[in-house]
Amino acid sequence: MTLQTARRRSTRSVMNDVVTHAKHLLNQSGQPKRRAVPRVSPLLHQADHEMIGPEGSQIASWHLLGHRYEAPPVLLVHGWEDDTSLWSPLIELLSQRGRSVVAFDLPGHGHSDGDRCSLELAADAILALQARFGPFAGAATHSFGGPALAKAFQQGLELDQVVLISPPVAQARQFERAWRRYGVEEPMIEAALALGHQEGRFFDLAAAATSMTAEALFIHSLDDEQCPASEGKRAAEAWPGARFWSVDGLGHRALVQDDEVVSMVAGWLDA
User: Fold this and answer.
1) Which of 39, 122, 187, 247 is 20 to 30 Å from 128 at the Cα level?
2) Could you give the CA distance from residue 91 to residue 55 in angstroms, rounded to a whole number?
């Protein structure tokens, strides 16, 4: 074997290792960490609890019936590595208004089955909930729940109003920021991004927004470091007729439970 041949084989071996590790990095990004003890919003202890779907991939759902039970329910979609406890203030206010609510744990989260979650799996869960409890009057989403709902829209979800709180817009950028926070080396990030684009793994909410028909309200805090408000505004501008409302000082998650934000969301969904 010549030195040149050995170098070529060595280069191919290194490249194959990079691709293998890049695939692993992409696949790892679809595995949420579960809490040791899953949480449930306190008000949902009064709700009808039902596991939806086939054995082994069931979705934990809660249907809280309001006194205005003739009106379609509101769907609540939490974000990555979160759960229904996020929505406690909103559930309480919607309940006071008499609205019925459907909340659930995303695949691989909380009381739901599985150890993986993707936009496709999340969209499938939302459509299964529509088949069981729909039609929905509207939906509120946080973070990852926003693009998951948009993906479900593309696959047949029907509702008239939606609130998207702190949604990630360009999934590739979201992964890139997360990998850098976790100290992943730049060559591996570049390889994973290239592979993800090549395999069509990355969803862009702004690109999808152009075909959306529901009345949409985007809410973003200007100091959100996980999902920049500028990207949320870009998606809102692409969504026909959408409104963009910015707040400040509430970060990525706290704004979901802020009194003013909760009141705005409830008013939008119960107009």
Assistant:
1) 39
2) 28
